[in-house]
Design brief:
The structure holds 2 protein chains of 2 kinds.
Chain A lengths: L6 E5 L8 H14 L4 E5 L21 H6 L8 E5 H6 L11 E4 L1 H10 L2 E4 L1
Parallel strand pairs in A: 1-2, 1-5, 2-3, 3-4
Chain B lengths: L10 H14 L6 E4 L20 H12 L2 E5 H6 L19 E4 L1 H8 L9
Parallel strand pairs in B: 1-2, 2-3
The chains are: A alpha/beta, B alpha/beta.
Chain lengths: ~120, ~120
Amino acid sequence: MNKSPYIVIQSTQPPYSSSCSIDALEAALAATNIGLEVMFIFVGEGVYQLLDKQENSAICHKSTFKKLKALPLFDIDKIFALHSSLIEHSVSLPIQMPNISAISDTELIDYCKQANHVLVF
Amino acid sequence: MVSKSPFDHRNAENALAFCHAAIENGHEIVQVFFYQAGVHNASCLLSPNNDEVNTHKKWLELYKKHKIALNVCVTAASRRGVVDESFVEPAASNLKHPFTQVGLSAYFESLADKSVNIQL
C-alpha cells in the first residue's frame, strides 16, 4: 500500500464521447508537474480508453491510447484499472502498457481512503 | 472545483450554496476553481431569462462579500471561447475580473498544502 502523500485521479468516461478522458490526463500531468504523486485509475466505462485499436482518425481525433502510453514518461507509474470494470466491459489490460495492473473494488476504496485528494473525471 | 456549465446543470448553484454554508460554519475557502465546462460560469455574456438564476452574478456577489479567488483553467476556458484580454481585444473578452485565468498547476499547488478539495 502506498504510504507517501498522493492524489487519485479516476478516469471514468470512454475516450471520444466527451473531453473527460483528456481532462483527466491533463490534470494528472499538471499535478506531477508540480511534484505531486499521482495514482491514475480507470473506472467504469473509462476502461474503454485502454482499447488500442479504436479508429480515432475516422473522427479526426488524436489517439487517447497513445497519450496514455506516455504516462510513465511524466512520472506517473501507478496506473490501475478496476478489475470489475474490465470484466463488465470485456476489456483486457493492454500489453503496450506494461505498467498498468488491475485492482479490486476493495483496493480502489482503500487507495481513495488513503489519498490526500480524489478527483473524478 | 466546479466542472459543469450553468443552466445545463445545477452544479454551480450547488457549489454556491456549499460555499455560503462552509463560510457560515467557519471554514475558509481559498479558491473556486472552474474546470471543464465549468469555465462557462466565468463568461460575462451569460444572459439567463429574468426569472432564472444568474449564476455569474451570484459568483460576483460571493467574491464581493468574501473575496474568494475565482480561478478559471486557462486551457479549458480558451477551448470553450471564454477568454480574457490576453487573448482578444478588451471589448471582445468575456472573462473579466474577479474571474482570473490560471493554469492547472496553480490549482494543484493549492492542494499541496493539505487543504480539502471539493469537486462538484
